[in-house]
Amino acid sequence: MMLSKGLKRKREEERETETLAGDAWWLDPSLPAAAQAPPATASSSLFDLSVLKLHHSLRQGEPDLRHLVLVVNTLRRIQASMAPAPTLPPVPSPPAAPCVADSLLASSDAALSASMASLLEDLSHIEGLSQAPQPLVDEGPPGRPVGGSPPSLGALDLLGPATGCLLDDELEGLFEDIDTSMYDSELWAPASEGLKPGPEDGPGKEEALELDEAELDYLLDVLVGTQALERPPGPGR
Amino acid sequence: MEQSYVVAEKFWPLLRVLFLAQEASIKLRKHFFPFSPLWGFEPQASPLDSIKGPHTSTQGLGPWCSPTGSPAPLSCETGCGEGSWILVCRLLVPTQVSLLSMEEDIDTRKINNSFLRDHSYATEADIISTVEFNHTGELLATGDKGGRVVIFQREQESKNQVHRRGEYNVYSTFQSHEPEFDYLKSLEIEEKINKIRWLPQQNAAYFLLSTNDKTVKLWKVSERDKRPEGYNLKDEEGRLRDPATITTLRVPVLRPMDLMVEATPRRVFANAHTYHINSISVNSDYETYMSADDLRINLWNFEITNQSFNIVDIKPANMEELTEVITAAEFHPHHCNSFVYSSSKGTIRLCDMRASALCDRHSKFFEEPEDPSNRSFFSEIISSISDVKFSHSGRYIMTRDYLTVKVWDLNMENRPIETYQVHDYLRSKLCSLYENDCIFDKFECVWNGSDSVIMTGSYNNFFRMFDRNTKRDVTLEASRENSKPRAILKPRKVCVGGKRRKDEISVDSLDFSKKILHTAWHPSENIIAVAATNNLYIFQDKVN
């Protein structure tokens, strides 16, 4: 999305100054606005643009965290400035956005792998499972709650509560051939049914699991043993 | 094993979710991204065409470097205002594709002279992503998007061609990083070189650190100009001789050979970063270095590759609460216990490793209060610091945010001592720049050897220098069209409104795809290297 040349074409001087003022409409709406465009619609188009950027960022396999954080913070500012304005409808333009956003994010690869990654990170006190071996650090923050939510959830919060929109039919078909029989066998009858797969099950997991660190450690030791077999050796080994 | 079944059964619901999610994730990835974006770029010409093209062999570096007079001895004390800058040479790193077809040519010195690439042959992999002089300025390293490192060496001063001093030629080229695949997360890891840092020279070989998003490597670059000949058990081609045929013994001797420069990876520091590495910095003790990603900073010992100390961790317990990331970090040039790191919120923290093992609490906190008259939705984005550099003296730090460069005194935390506007005319264009993502561009900044002049890049292939003493500044351009070799660079000016003068460029005509993000300044002389896409420009100060 690069501009190769400046956006504006050549024009006479008066129109130039006019447009420059017009381009400044996005300045903080609490300041007296000399701009032509009313702040409400200007903010909302900026809001939409930011939401679009957020989605694009989350679609990446591994989003640029700096870009993501800056866009989210900007989105929060815009939302904060839009909310108290009396002339705006109670939920400005976003009503269309959250459903689209939710379904996009629910089907987003990044959300799943991000939630998985952060879940694994929170669970493992054994660094072998995560990407970051840090055996000499004793000062990791203790007792982190299980089921930490990924950055995508934070963004979802802005748009409204995660509704857990169902996947498209098309995408449903994609998962039909995943063989769940291995996971559904009697031997492994699930202890509680309160869990649904997906990014919004943070609180559910917390209740279902009793944090017994020694048991977790042991279990993950076993997992690491099998994972290490599957992973190819890194360059430094 | 029994116990593991019991434990597993307890956590089965969670594990089931994880296993299913992983399968689903792989399927989704294949559905949405069947083709990798990284390897879809095609070169525009066949490599053979380029070798047989008009610009081969005899031209060497081309007409740009023909001497017009011997440059006066250079010193750091001349600021950017008094001297004038001339183009020394423009170097095009050999493209990835053509390098493959030249495998039989070991002597990499010949490569830069024997084929000269035109801009249209360049691939995306050739985009330079980092530039760094070594501690003497004799070598200049560049890293590119294709994971390659190219090292240039300064032309030696000789009796015959004293005028050619100041030019740099290719010394060594090697593939530092390859694209990788992270199987656990089903993600590709880019091979782009984010940073290169040299180690001070301690013997005949040169050492540098190069890093991509995840892995840091220590490379040894050494010369070989002799080779042993006269082995007893091997013949001249290296084949083993039948011991029964050996009747006499001889002592192998070292004979001179054509100079060969070889690069070997000596250490690989991997698997320590969950997020993308943005900085590496060698400590003044020369035994340790640090690597920083978005949320963590790790301390390494050069000898130990399988573990590192985590010294900064700003990851919140709940990722929902994440509002700030680390953007750059650097060790103090003299105090091996101090370092700084900058954030996306425009703050800098100075940390002392003697205070505690985990430096989450800073010793000093540098932040300038927000100017209320300039407040906007984009205030935070433009305050995000893209680069932080200690002065050579260690007394100051310089930070680059989107519109300004600031110099801070380590003893004053509440505001910078100097602020320089790089391209303030963009302040009214922030919305468009947000739209096309240019507002997220990360510009670097550098000090000159005496800390009297600072330099940073801008758009339209412009770069800016600020003289801290005279308070004068200059805008120069690094482009083929406007630079004749050894001609003096003409200062540029951007016109912000009103009547545009003949030599000025209006803001609307600026080319935002031509950005100078990476520059470097020779440690003791007024020689600068400026990277513009796949071109490396070397300028020097011509003092009359």
Automatic annotation (TrEMBL), chain A:
Region of interest: Disordered: 1-22
Domain SERTA: 39-86
PANTHER family with a match to the protein in the record: CELL DIVISION CYCLE ASSOCIATED PROTEIN 4/SERTA DOMAIN-CONTAINING PROTEIN 2, SERTA DOMAIN-CONTAINING PROTEIN 1
Highest rank taxon of the organism: Eukaryota
Gene: SERTAD1
Signal peptide (residue range): none
GO biological process: negative regulation of cell growth; positive regulation of transcription by RNA polymerase II
A Gene Ontology term for the protein's cellular component: sarcoplasm
Pfam families in the record: SERTA (PF06031)
InterPro entries attached to this UniProt entry: E2F-SERTA_domain_protein, SERTA_dom
Name of the featured protein: SERTA domain containing 1
From TrEMBL, chain B:
Keyword 4Fe-4S: no
Entries under Gene3D superfamilies matching the protein: YVTN repeat-like/Quinoprotein amine dehydrogenase
Entry keyword Repeat: yes
Signal peptide residues on this chain, from the entry's feature table: none
Keywords: Repeat, WD repeat
Single Gene Ontology MF annotation: protein phosphatase regulator activity
PROSITE patterns associated with the record: PR55_1, PR55_2
GO cellular component: protein phosphatase type 2A complex
Protein family per UniProt: Belongs to the phosphatase 2A regulatory subunit B family.
Protein name: Serine/threonine-protein phosphatase 2A 55 kDa regulatory subunit B
